[in-house]
Amino acid sequence: MKLLYAHENHFMVNNVKNLIEAQQISCFIKNEFAQGAVGEISAFDAWPEVWLVNEADFERATTILTSYQQANKGEDWLCKSCAETNDASFEICWNCQHEHKESL
């Protein structure tokens, strides 16, 4: 077994697990319910982690994870309707629900 990814946000960890499993790589989440122990243990030790069952899959899983992380990088955008700044991952303005359309 080998650690692939850790993050304080359960959503992020589950998303990575789903991406890896979609490529037929066996993995599991460790520390899924450990956040209740914060105070008794370090907050960092309670972060959920994605572990690979087979260490031989590490290189392939790392490539998948890196591609995902690079694809999610982008620049914030300004809504043309209300002038509100939105995160790059938003396709719809959080303030006015106006759809983001890339300039051609």
What does this structure look like?
It is a single chain. It is flat and about 50 Å long. The protein has 104 residues and is of the alpha+beta class. The strands form two sheets. A three-stranded antiparallel beta sheet has the order 1-3-2, covered by helices on one side. The chain has helices at 10-21, 58-71, and strands at 2-6, 27-30, 49-52, 77-78, 85-86. The model has no long low-confidence stretch (mean pLDDT 86).
Structural descriptors:
single chain; 104 residues; alpha+beta; three-stranded antiparallel sheet; two-stranded antiparallel sheet; 25% helix; flat
Number of helices: 2
Uncertain residue ranges: none
- What is the average per-residue confidence, as pLDDT, rounded to a whole number? 86
Shape field: flat
- Work out the helicity level: 25-40%
* Fraction of residues in β-strands: 15-25%
State the order of secondary-structure elements, H for helix, E for strand: EHEEHEE
Structure class:
alpha+beta
Compact summary:
By secondary structure, this protein is α+β, with helices and mostly antiparallel strands. The chain is built from two helices and five strands, in the order E-H-E-E-H-E-E.
Secondary structure elements and pairings:
Blueprint: E1 2-6, H1 10-21, E2 27-30, E3 49-52, H2 58-71, E4 77-78, E5 85-86
Antiparallel strand pairs: 1-3, 2-3, 4-5
